[in-house]
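Help! Submission page says 'invalid entity' but I think these are all valid:
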Amino acid sequence: MLDNIFVTIAKFSRLTLGICLFILSLIVIAYASYLLKIEVTESEPKNNVALRFPTATEYVNNDPFWWLLNGSNNIRMINFSDERMKGVFTIKIYPNPCKDNSVVEVIHNNETNKSIIKPNANSITILADLKPYQSKDVNLRVINSKSCFVSNGDNRDFGVLVSSWKFR
Amino acid sequence: MKNKYLILSILIGLFSILYKITNIIKIPPNFDYYDSPSYFNFRVLGGVRMPLITLIYSNIDKYEIITLLQAFFSGIAWSILALTFYVLKIKPIVSFAGSLVIYSLGISTQIVFLESYLMAESFNISMMVLIIALSFIYAVRRKFGILFCLIFSLICFGNIKSVNGLLVWIPIMFLFGFYVFNNRNAKNFRKAQIITLSTSFIISLLTLFISINIDATPILNTSAIINSRLWNVEKWKEKTIEAGFPIESRRTFERYSSANLGLPPDKAVSLQEDYINWYENGGDNFLVKFLIFNPSYTLFGPILTPAVTLNNSFNQSIIYGHAAGIINYENKQTINAQLGLDNRLFWPNERALKYMFIGLCYLLLSFLINSKLTDPLISKTIIYLLTFGFALSYISWWFASTPNDIARHQFPTGVLIRVISIFAFIIVINNQKFSLTKFSSR
């Protein structure tokens, strides 16, 4: 009697588990194919992609900013997630304290794009295609006609100011 | 012929143990300032961690020796698992191939990484690997000594993590069902089996009692699950508010999530006075009541999260946990995650491929447990291991797995599914080879 009950339970559990696993596997495989095909991401790009600047982060009223120096500045794009992230970085740039009309060259993927920095806010864009966990360097070359030093003892040759960035 | 392959597999096993030990000597033990201290505080009842793991940690005390022991035990467990193929009725060359695949998983970065951590994870995985090996061995070789080792391993496994302790009676009940009542050929053996299994069932109930009394931060987990999961779905959010969850706690969570204010958001909420008052006046049972009165969430939430939450993503489901592995960007930068084999076959780098791999594992297993390709006792063993694995996953999801730590909580079942899939694949290959040989000899 007890033997039969256990045989029935075993058969039932085997069948149920098999069917559930089969349906689940089809759903998961279809979902993975969908993710691969249309290149959507599960994770929020804004939470998983970042820019790292070669200079220290400074703050005014809790708002961060970065000074890029005259010459070559290596900026690192980082993808923290296990998903491929494709999008555009938009970097907001202001001129240096000397109000020079700087030229910023973005050197990325063997291409160079030039932007002339105007007295008010400027935006430069960088196309990014980052594989899972990948970091890529972009070179931002600031070309000023003359050096820009301030008189408070800071010996940096100021290029341009980066006030914010976003990724979409 | 068999001996030649077996000796080769044993030698590779010895090499893998040596490899793990030399790796662990190279790197410093990884002490987690939030979790590790509680492992050094031994208490049988009412502690923060299960007693077996705290007994080991508090007695050894020296970090380097603990990690060395973890690596050594891991090496032994994976070697026993790799050699299990030779016990099953599988051709020696196929067994050898199977053992190589198991070794490659055992020395993969995901496994080696855990050996350097001063947390229960490594012993937990090793003990589970041992249970899988002994279960398969017992399915084909009904020796009392093997049953004893299997039961002993299950009881130890139950006393490493509280979630294991809650569920360790399940495999013991399965052993009762499959090997005692449901096997007419083992009459001489029944008496000894019944005594062993009855005793172990009583011990597993004691383990269950210890697990229920573990004080492993339920106040923190309740806040984390409410804020990270329930608050994102309107009807769950309403039910949470109806249950009296203080709105101010949610604001605290949002404030601490938006910037680094020195505390993790869940911790900040758990220290808030109105949240503590709510928790102490019935909030401690909130998750259990929520599970009882929301059966669709309880049953389908863990696996079909997109259908239940309507957020079109599996990343909060146990499926993601099974697929993901434990190494993320943050710990990928540490020296501890640079050791071992990368093994992209079992641990792909890209999320879509991770889902694809785990989906294929489910598919393979669904076919195997209902096919006649394998011995009925082997397929029953696969069923009981899978049931146990999914039960562990479900319990972890219900009470602890927030998006931040879902990969860590679901990792043991992720490893279990990979290991069983390797066994399933090798069994299918073995049978296929056999039928091809028959075909060509006609």
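Support: the input was valid. A stray whitespace character was the problem, and the output above is from the cleaned input. The mean pLDDT of chain A is 86.
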